[in-house]
Amino acid sequence: MDISRADHIAEQLEDLILTGRFGSGERLDEHRLAEEFGVSRTPIREAFQKLAVSGLVQQLPRRGVFVHQPGPVELLEMFEVMAELEAVCGRFAALRISDAALDDLHGANARCLLAVAAKDSDDYYRENEQFHRIIYRESGNRFLEQEANRLHRRLKPFRRIQLQFRGRIQQSMEEHDAILAALRAGDSVGASEALRSHVAVQGEKFHHLMASLQNAAE
Amino acid sequence: MDISRADHIAEQLEDLILTGRFGSGERLDEHRLAEEFGVSRTPIREAFQKLAVSGLVQQLPRRGVFVHQPGPVELLEMFEVMAELEAVCGRFAALRISDAALDDLHGANARCLLAVAAKDSDDYYRENEQFHRIIYRESGNRFLEQEANRLHRRLKPFRRIQLQFRGRIQQSMEEHDAILAALRAGDSVGASEALRSHVAVQGEKFHHLMASLQNAAE
DNA sequence: ATCGCCATTGTTGTATACAATTTGATTGAC
DNA sequence: GTCAATCAAATTGTATACAACAATGGCGAT
């Protein structure tokens, strides 16, 4: 499964947007980007088309493409949907997960704890992501897995923020334990609810942060 | 919100694929389509990029784009996810739906019944679709609404098929009544479960159809 | 001075030309 | 006769040229 040049450019642009390199509402200049990437406008434009479908940029005819960073309301909505998607994954996974995957989950969780102890945030995020991706996969539904991964990726930059709350990491690890226990027990309702609240609280934390920033700005 | 030419072409191609005008695995010829649409290859290619993100076509570098019609397994997975998305919409909508929207739902359902009596399948499908779209909207979560609409549209051509089962339309209308009653009562669990099974059964019917075709082919 | 109109400039959208790669066929050898 | 290799044709990917349109600035009129 090789990947063409235009696709590669789309991925790079996607990364630049997701990591917040471009401000919200900023216009993406075709000429500038073409020069920066050392290509003509054509592949840049083809990449824009893809990004527009993902919702990362908005295309205004004859005006240009503008990066669309979701506002607080849209983010809350996305976290709400993410919580439900993960809940579904958990419900399915509790019935379908393999022993090997359970071990993998346990391993990822253990490495998460190590990363916390070592205060290595990059490691922590990677293992945390791995933990969730395994659950998506073990839902046994490829399409669901893809959709969950898609939204997970979209929310990635905002997930990082909420973990800076005092005590949130500790709480998050305990929730992971509960999720793992429910999956191990084949408790679909338990796994579902544990995952839903685990993700939903991320949105709420984010909301609190937004609100406090809002207050601070006044 | 004006729409450019390339976007329009993308929509037309999407329709052609969704309505099954192109066979699965068929290669889309840039020259042919460019001539048919009376444009150059450039807008066609830009449309391809969009379709590839939606998963309607697959792009193989230096090989071309091929329409990707989901197989039986993938379709079942998609119906499963659709069922869960609608269940979530129903759970939220039961708490958030407005009286006006409840009236709209009742109206759509009534027009559905009329269409059934008149054996007007086009009307039936339109009103049935309206019924579901209202529930998505009344979930109060714009992002969820968009995602639900997206998948609904993707599954549209396959939804039609399963309704040809004997008695299915009658059963479907009764399920609509149950859904409407639960929403009216603010019963989030009831609405959720009614919607889940209502959609899930569509996937199962489709599966039965696939299986029977499989047997017939042997 | 302000409002409106026109021209100029810059940007997007489309077409065409060119390069690179794949596919199919034909030819030759074994 | 079959297989392999090379060449030709077709097709995709990219660059460039051109056309259509929006934005901005200056000029004139009121």
Any descriptors?
2 domains, Four Helix Bundle (Hemerythrin (Met), subunit A), 218 residues, 9 helices, Arc Repressor Mutant, subunit A, three-stranded antiparallel beta sheet, DNA-binding
Question: In words, what does this structure look like?
Answer:
2 copies of one chain form a homodimer. With 218 residues, chain A is mainly α. Chain A has 2 domains: 63 residues, Orthogonal Bundle (Arc Repressor Mutant, subunit A); 146 residues, Up-down Bundle (Four Helix Bundle (Hemerythrin (Met), subunit A)). Chain A is 77% helix and 5% strand. Chain A is built from 9 helices and 3 strands, in the order H-E-H-H-E-E-H-H-H-H-H-H. In chain A, strands 1-3-2 form a 3-stranded antiparallel β-sheet. Chains A and B meet through helix 3, helix 4 and helix 7 of A and helix 3, helix 4 and helix 7 of B. Chain A binds a DNA duplex (30 and 30 nucleotides) through helix 3.
Show unreliable segments of chain A: none
Class per helix and strand makeup of chain A: mainly alpha
What string gives the helices and strands of chain A in order?
HEHHEEHHHHHH
Strand content of chain A: under 5%
Biggest sheet of chain A: strands, sense, closure?
3 strands, antiparallel
Q: Based on the coordinates given, report the CATH architecture of the largest domain in chain A.
A: Up-down Bundle
